[in-house]
Amino acid sequence: MAEELRLFAGVDAGASRTALVLGDATGRILSRVRGGPGILRPGRAGAVAERIAGLLKQALGASGPVASLEALVIGAAGAGREAERGALEEELRRRVESRAVLVTTDAAVALQSAFPEGPGIVLSAGTGSIAIGRNREGTVYRVGGWGRQFGDEGSAYSLARAGLAAVAKAEDGRGPKTLLTARMLEAAGKVSVEELIAWARLARPQRVAALAPVVCRAAAEDPVASLLVQAAAAELAHHVEALRERLSDFAIPVALSGGLLVKGSAVRDALVARLKAAEPPVNLVDRGVDPASGALALALGLRP
Amino acid sequence: MAEELRLFAGVDAGASRTALVLGDATGRILSRVRGGPGILRPGRAGAVAERIAGLLKQALGASGPVASLEALVIGAAGAGREAERGALEEELRRRVESRAVLVTTDAAVALQSAFPEGPGIVLSAGTGSIAIGRNREGTVYRVGGWGRQFGDEGSAYSLARAGLAAVAKAEDGRGPKTLLTARMLEAAGKVSVEELIAWARLARPQRVAALAPVVCRAAAEDPVASLLVQAAAAELAHHVEALRERLSDFAIPVALSGGLLVKGSAVRDALVARLKAAEPPVNLVDRGVDPASGALALALGLRP
C-alpha cells in the first residue's frame, strides 16, 4: 500500500491549453485536469508555474490529501532554450513540493508518448510546428519549432496568417479574388476586410490560429486556399525529410500530432500524400499522441 | 509683414523617426526638426501627439515666439483607419493651438510631395511598404500597407524576417546553407542562431528591419539572399502593377521612396529591372520624396 502513495505528475503546457496527469508508481493514471494556455516565454515563467501549481492542487485534491510528489515533468511550448527551462524549474520549486522537477519541450514529451523507446519521429502541427525524433542510437534531434516570428512553417498560425495575407492582397488587387474573404469575415464576425485585419493584428496568436480550419475547409472549393494548404503540407514534409536525414534512418516510423493534423484535415491529407510519395516513402504509423502522458512516463523514469 | 506671421506645419510620423517642418504662408520652410518614432497604433495616439507637440515647440522656438498655427497636417504610418486618425487629431487639439488639424497617412503626404498635382504613384518601402496613386481625375487609391502581420510585402521588415527564417531553416537542414547565417550573427552581435532568433523575437520591428541591408548586401554572393531580394522586388512590382490597373492609367509616372529603395540597394535594382520589363514598361521618374514637405503643402491647402 505504501507504494501507492508515491505520486508522479506529467504536464503538457501548450499555446492554447495546459493538461496535467497524476499517476502512481506503476504508471496508472489517477486523475487528469486541464486549464488555459501554458506557453513559456521570457518573463512568463512565474505565470506558467502558477497555472501548473493550481492544476496540481486540483488533481491532488481529487486523489485525496497527499503531501508531496516524487517527480514532476513539464513539456512546455517555448521551452527550447535553457534560460526559459531553468526559470520555470525555479518558479515551480518555489510553489510545488516535489523531489524532482524537470522542464523539457512539448515536442520531447510528445515523442515519449508516441515512441516510449526505440526510434521514431513525431511531427506536431498545432498553433506552432516542430518535428522531433530519436534514432536507434538514442540520439534526439529537432527540426523547426523556431517560433511564430521566424519559423513554425506549416503551423495553424502560419496558415491562418497566409490566409489573411491572401485576403488583404485580393482586396487591393495584388492577388486573385478568394472565397477566404467571405469565410474569414464570417468566422471572425467582422464586416470589412479592414476591420478583420485590424482585429487579427491585435488578436492573440491562438485566436488567429483558430482561423486555420477555415482555410482547410475552403481548400476543396477555392484555388487560393488550396495552394496555401499545399504549401503548408510541403513545409511540414520538409521537417520530416530533414529529420530522417539527420537521424540517418529512412525507415524510422513517423507519427502525426496536433490540432492541424487531426483526421479529415485538408493539411493532413495533403501531407500524407507527400510523405507517401517521398523517396523512399515515409513510414507513417498511427499512434495516439498524448503529451501529458509522455511527461508522466518521463517523471516515472526520473524516480524509478 | 503680417502675412509672415501666419505659420503652417507638416509632419511625417514614421516607424523609425518623426520629422516636422514649419513654413510660412508662401510655403517657405522656416525650420525643420526631427525626433524618434511616431508610428500610430491603437492606444498610442497620446504618445504620438506628445512627440509632435514637443517637436513643434522646438521648431517654434527656433522661429521666435508665435502664439498659434494656421494649420497642422500629419502624415502618420499606421493611420489607415479613421479610428486612429480621429484619436490622434483629438489628442493634438488638446496639446497644440492650431486653427486646423488633419491626420492622414504617411503615403498620402509622400504622394503630395512627389506629385503636388496631377497623376502619379509613389511606391514606398521602408520598415513597411505601401503604394499610393492619384489619376488624372483626382481619384486616390492605395495598394498594400496592411501592416507587418498580414501585409507590408516587400518591406524591410518582411525581407529581414524572411532572412531570419532562411537562417533558421539552414540551421536545422530544411534549407540550404547560406552566407546570411554569418552575416546576420555579425550584424546583430550574436554568437549562435538560437540566440539570434531569440533576440529578434523580442526586438522592435525597426531593429529587425535594420537587418534588411544585410540581405541586400549578401545578394551578390549568396543564392539564398538573392532569391529573397528577387521575391521582395516582385512583391513591390505587384503593388505598382495593381495600382496602375486600378487607376486605369498605364502611363502614370511612378516615384520610389523609403530606406529599402535608396540608390544602390539590391532591392531597388531588382525592382527597377522588373518595372522596366513590365508591359507596357512602367514610367519611372526620379523624384525626391520628402513626406514632411508634402504634409506642409497639404497644410497650406487647408488654409489658403
Q: Give me the strand/helix succession of chain A.
A: EEEHEHEHEEEHHHHHHEHEH
On the 0 to 100 scale, the average pLDDT of chain A is 90
Based on CA atoms alone, the radius of gyration of chain A comes out at 20 Å
* Content-based structural category of chain A: alpha/beta
Assembly annotation: homodimer
CATH class of the largest domain in chain A: Alpha Beta
Count up the helices of chain A: 11
For the record, the count of structural domains of chain A works out to 2
What is the number of strand segments of chain A?
10
Unreliable stretches of chain A, pLDDT < 50, 5 or more residues? none
The coarse silhouette of chain A is globular
Helix content of chain A: 40-55%
Just name the CATH architecture of the largest domain in chain A: 2-Layer Sandwich
List the helices and strands and how they pair.
Two copies of one chain form a homodimer.
Chain A: E1 7-13, E2 18-24, E3 29-35, H1 45-62, E4 69-76, H2 82-95, E5 98-105, H3 106-114, E6 120-125, E7 129-134, E8 140-144, H4 156-171, H5 180-188, H6 193-202, H7 205-209, H8 212-218, H9 223-246, E9 253-257, H10 266-277, E10 283-284, H11 291-302
Parallel strand pairs in A: 1-4, 4-5, 6-9, 9-10
Antiparallel strand pairs in A: 1-2, 2-3, 6-7, 7-8
Helix pairs in contact in A: 1-2, 3-11, 4-6, 4-8, 4-9, 9-10
